[in-house]
Amino acid sequence: MSKPQSATEAKPQSKQEDQRKNPDREQVPDRAVGLTIMCLAIVFVAVWMALQSPQQIDSKTTELSSRAQASITGFLANAWFLPDEPLLGFVHIPAGPFTMGSNPALDRLAYENERWSSSRRQGTVQIDDFYIGLFEVTAAQFRVFVAEYPDLANEVPVDIQGDMPITNVTWPEALAYARWLQQKLENSSDTPEELRSYLAAGGQVSIPSEAEWEKAARGVDGRIFPWGNTPRAELANYGSSTMLAVGSRSCAECAFGLQDMSGNVWEITRSPFQAYPYNPNNDAENLSEDALWVMRGGSFSDGAGNVRAAVRGGVDPSVRNNTIGFRVVISKP
Amino acid sequence: MAISASYNNNSRNNKNSADKQTLASMAAFKFPLVLSISLILLSFVPRVQGNTALVWSFWGAAATLLLWQAYLLFNSKNKNEEHVFSVVLRPQHYIQAMVQFSVYAYWGYYWRPVYDHAWLMLAQLLFAYTFDMLLAWSRRREYSLGFGPFPIIFSINLFLWFRDDWFYMQFVMIAVGFMGKEYVRWNRDGRSSHIFNPSAFALGLFSLILIATNTTGLTWGQDIASTLTLAPNIYTFLFLAGLIVMYFFSITLVASMAAITLFGVSALYSASTGVPYFLDSEIPAAVFLGLHLLITDPSTSPRTPLGKAFFGVLYGLGVFGLYTLLGAMGEPTFYDKLLVVPLLNLSVIAIDRAVRSIHSTAFLNVWKESWLGGHANLAHMSIWIVIFASMSFLGKTDNKHQGDSLPFWEQACASNLSNACGRLLQLEATYCADNAAWACNEIGAYYREGIITESNQELSMAYFSRGCELKFQAACLNLLDTELVAREVPHELDLRLLLREGGQNLMTLSEQELVERACEHDWAFACENNGA
Lengths: 333, 532
Prior knowledge:
The structure holds 2 protein chains of 2 kinds. Chain A is an alpha+beta fold. Helix content of chain A is 27%, strand content 13%.
């Protein structure tokens, strides 16, 4: 059968003709070796790539887990490094009213945004009972969490001394830690009965609202600092050049016995930064504004004016900063 | 031995050679040696020094090449072999390379990572030349020194680069491409020829591996595919650049038929379902690029005109099908244009055989040779120009596309139109990845509600977190209260991303212009504001 030939077709050559034109072709090494090398290269690439992600995650997880297991005095390695205290370091704050905001007549260091309203200097806020962490969340505690979410290790530098407060955590990451801790507490048989009951009754682990934080910091007697009305550098880490391990400046006289409420690191809250009077129910307003959240307590690098219990700072939810950490609460929304 | 002293006129491979000279014996080794040393020197430029893995990739590649040279040199001395290369300048190489270079220049002007990548492309060229040369010599073949590696490297880099930390894979990919050309061959029309287009072979193979190992993130593939449209009028640019290649190498039938098929099936899909097939264009720009510069290698496409047309049609259908398949598998859809080429390369003999069985010269040539004085390619080009112009006139190329409008997809999803909810999620995920906080909150809300997609609380929290970190208050509230689904209209910064229509973010547009544009996209709040 004759085939139609187009002008664009190449003329076929016979093998013999090809060999005659290329007499040295038979000397060319066999393709088998080259093909084998190529196939091996492809297999290598496939295996290597398959190992890439899992390997990285595994090694990171292993590293974090092993570091997390190192014991730290005063904290329970078998309880997510929560404090070795009767309620795993959670302190009960009873329900009731407290004074919020500052009175410039009594507190000369007060800022304008601590004023309750144009007609009132301070307000009274009633809140339910809740539990708050004795200390700021530590690096060791956060490492246990990150060990389960290793991608976070790229973002949060957890490679610091275990009893130091964790810093450089964004607002959503702090909330994620709280949610994770809630699951752990709910599912563990070692969780103290008091906490277990509170959680079962609707308690949620979170970061504090600014009202919860302020009540815990200044108590119900309206003091300016957690320990009283005058600055005392021996009771809190402020005006210094470095962050300290949690509880380093022991403060027995502080409200509810809580440590580092003033200084060491700023503590982010779950309250949006809005003008007073404080309203716990208005969180869903102003959605068109950029998010900004209240942080409290000041840090080691601040002066006495910024570590007062009523001081309000604002922080963008994406900010990572080595002077900003957080503390957890268990409260009923 | 002075290099210039050993030129001779060996003409074993002198077909198509415009200028052919041969350099013999040991002196020839100076050439790959210089290239390998250049590769090492290139590792000292700041762009490379900025990443340790990149530096080691360069050194590893250079070391491999140097060891290979040493082995060949040792062997040639022992066995008294002669390694030669000849200078062969083929227009299909340098014209193609020039066209590809123009694409880089234009695209890179609007997406700077392309220019940042220039040093790495140069390194790949050095590697490719040396590798190709040593491969030829290992096969005791004369090496044809010309612009051959340029279109291969340019073509690969138009579609896939590994990120700096994994850049050694880029060298391996190039090596595999050249080895595929050398070793994976068949006898076609009585001559031994490579089966696969070298760049398409490497791209196809590595695409498969990346998909199978779920490691697309190690490459810039997704970014490359989505940033071509940052260059304004990219379709027209690619069309004009494509005309040059079409004119010189008669690939009009392949490229135009692929484009026409894709436009056609997209239009059919759109007409029957009410939603566009591709998310943001009638043909994704990267596919349009691929059909001009990836599938048009004459040696790996059919020889008969009808075969070429059929090849183009199959490419169009292949991309169309793979887009859905990859999407259904949850894999990145940009691989569609890459995976189909090796399969088509494998089918060229069958295509040619099938069309040759047709007993009609006119049909076989798609055009009667006698028409237009035998200038069939010019005639094909003319038709393609008319078709492209018509499509442009109808707004199917560089203009605004229906799929650019998020309210359109929201409406389509609410109306249960085919695949619309999936596309909506896909589009919002893309915008969220580009830092549009509104999109993060919306997609988080969808995963929390579980209405248009399966409920996934972990995923919803991840999206809310991202939205919140981008300062979208509603997303933060959704993080705080797991029972809540707070929504809010896009903020100004979101609109600058959401309304970009595949182009640059609209950072310089005034607020009023933004609102007007949002209204054109059917954002109800914008139309209300505009009216007010």
